[in-house]
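Can you make up a polypeptide sequence alongside its tokenized fold?
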Amino acid sequence: MSDKQPPVPSEETPDSESNGLQDLVSSYRESRFRPDKLQRTVRHSIHTHALTHKSTRPAEKADAYPASIERERNGYRARFNNAYQESPTPLTEQPATFLDHALAVIQSRRFLIAVINVASLFLIMMSTLVIIGGTGYVWVAIQLPPAEELRSRSLQFATTQILDRDGNLLWEIIDPTGGRRTNVTLDKISPHIINATLATEDRFFYLNVGVDPIAIMRATFDNLSEREIVSGASTITQQLARNVFLNPKERTERSFSRKLREAVLAMEINRRYSKGQILEVYFNQIYYGNHSYGIEAASQTYFGKSARDLTLPEAAMLAGLPQSPAIYDPYRNPDGAKGRQQVVLGLMVEAGYITLAQAREAAATPVTFRDLDFPLEAPHFVTLVREELEQNVPAAYIYQAGLRVYTTLDESMQAAAEQAVQTRIDELADRNVSNGALLAMDPSTGAILALVGSRNFLDVSIDGQVNMITSPRQPASTIKPLTYLAAFERLDWTPSTLLWDVPVEYGDENGNVYRPRNVDGQFHGPVSVRTALANSYNIPVIKTLEEVKISGLKEIAYRLGISTLNREDYGLPLTLGSGEVSLLEMTNAYQAMANQGMLLHPTTILTITDNFGREISPLRHPSRRVLNEAHAYLITDILADTQARTTEFDPDRILQLSRPAAAKTGTTNDFRDSWTIGYTPDIVTGVWVGNADNTAMDEVDGLTGAGHIWHNFMEAAHQTLPVRDFPRPDSIVEFEVCADSGTFPGELCPATRTEIFYNQQPPLGPEHDFHQYIEIDLNTNLRVNQFCRGNVELRPYRIFPPEARAWAAARGIEQPPAQYCPSRDLSASISRPIDNVSVRGTIDIEGAIVAPKISYYELELGQGTKPQSFITIQGPNHQLVRRGLLGTFDTTQVANGPYTLRLVVSDQIGGFTDARIRILIDNPPEDISPQSPVTTPPATYTPIASGTPSLTATATITATIPSTITSDTFNPPPEWTPEPDNPFAPRAVPPRHGPGF
């Protein structure tokens, strides 16, 4: 095909059809749109420059330009000449008189002098700039290699090799002179691919002088706005100059000097070569991915046809590849390649090569690719290496500079991984299992040691080329540790925190009811966080997420590097794995747990050297602390606790290795995904088993599928590694706790166990133990309140919250009564004598009594301020005294000294209350006549642990006169604290806040 001048956009406003371009063009392309007027201005100035410098171009090159360009030049020349053929307007009119004429001459001379001075200064400045610029251009140009060497130099580049960590070749980017490159002339290349490439890479290729000033200004503005390099302005000619003439080190530099050298070379190439020659070299030199250098090799590789036969959809697909061949690889990333094709079609519409209707038709036309016919070692791993490599060096440098890329892959581990996956998938073939994937990493560096993206890369029937390591799937229960980590952080929970695995249901505004169930269909009652996580119980983790909130789980997942949990409509099943994550990101989250809370970015590259042996430092993401090291260790210890998970997992212990190891399985609904992720201090490994098309397996759970692969690989991978335990942080402490409640042991705790804790989050106190004594009123067999303490028994109970009472009843676990004894609103007070007063002789005792159903009241006297017994001095009396005289007492009947006077009130159902005051009896010695009255002992509260209720008898007091009469310091009994609102909480203990209470 001959060189073609791109059409000049029309000045008319785009119609509604053009506005539909948004269907094909991204916002990235919109930022590059130029107003038509600016385009015309640039083209006019460039053509004018070309006309005025035509004589400097070699004569033999003139014929290389298409007739269309010459015709357009002539049109611009005519417009240019016509614009300046008008006569200049006189500065002044003819003066009417001699004087006027003289003045006009003087004024015109002054004006002319000023104009001449300004013009001279301007010319001097411009001449200086031109001289300086020209000198600089020549100075740079003479240091560069001759532009005439473009064609010969473009053929001289070396093959890049991707190696494992031991130097074994995994994949080689084939030397283009070795066969996967066929040089073709421009007339043997489809016009569609030429137009698509020009629209994508350099729309003004035929108009620019090797560099694009407008693109440079746009890129400069974008980069200054973002304060970093976010876009470039390289023309096709500049790309050739950079890739062919600059050495590998210079190509990667981001400096003004490099850009200047590149620009000068591009302009020299543009001066010495025709546009057709430049374009021909470009199409034979550019890399299109999958071992294909040049458009002919790419056309044969992807479509099995010559470049001259490419259709518009195929051309648009290929034109989008050079920007990033690995990312837009249509075999690995068909959706990304399709999106890139649509962008190219949109750019072609914008440049005027095709209509919008043609673009839409091309986008809707299916593109069929030829099967790749070259073998790869660890093909999915190599793909990740290519993607990481493109983040370190330019794509052209990667595929032309003779790089030796030493990767993190371990040959023996890769072989063990492939064998483990292949063997187990074959064993499960009769249970509708077709695929599996495995990823192994070094938790201390983030290096990927082994990677199997599918059972067979070349098996189309299982979508083998789809990398299941990076494909989002539901992670099932492997996400549960993240929920408990959030509880450790946000709720101060510990491995011994009590959870209640009992039936629960959640309703929504639409009347739907969600009733979570455990995998075994059972409810296990009180369980610790350790037991709940180790056995993967669903109900406890649902309740945990209810406490930490969905936002809390999403936040910690994002912090651990999981990027896909970004929807707003997740519900509580998110903690059971209802969201979608990739095995790569989930395994890397476990890497942070294995690495004491430090998150590392997965990496595939160890070192890079170029063809001259110079090392290129690969990009390294800094490590980040994302978890408290104590919390990371607590989760690790739970996942490594083989004893804790024996309740649910069979005795063969697939998750147990010959060394300390932490692991978690997961199984999605309908057995669509089987997961196991686990780690030792040396290796973290994630395994997935299932079908790429998401069809269900035949009851293959996380243990049966992925668990076997994980176990077999981990044992093989650790054969040469010493046995190591997980390092315990200094902040981890041990305490004895009650075995079932997880609190510090109380008096009734039947058994204890040792648990580990973060030293800032110890276990709860014994008052939170659900093993407690409860005071029972034997008169009513109800719980005791302040008014019914005359016949009380202390009974031991396991006190469960209301949600667990039905579960307890079904298992014969007795719970304390919910009701209290009915006695209430009893009141007794003594108003006279007043408290702590000295009395003598016969005294009146006044006060008040409140009792809905009074039985009697009595007045009693006890010796001292803290008497152990009382004698009855009045009563029993069955009359209600609201306010008045309760009785009289002759104080001369007892010896002088301090006493306690008590008023006791009892109701008809056994309740009672009392009131006390202190008095000092101080009678003259001659008036004292001690008596020994017969007393009736009143009821006093004495709790008993078991047996029949009893009353403490009041002893008869024999008065004795102390040698010295003093007043004791009176300490009144503690005030009664109302019972807590929760009738199931222990007496006088505030209800516990947290799970299960």
User: Anything to note?
Assistant: The radius of gyration is 46 Å. Residues 1-96, 933-997 have pLDDT under 50 and may be disordered. Residues 98-143 form the longest helix (46 residues). The longest strand covers residues 897-907.
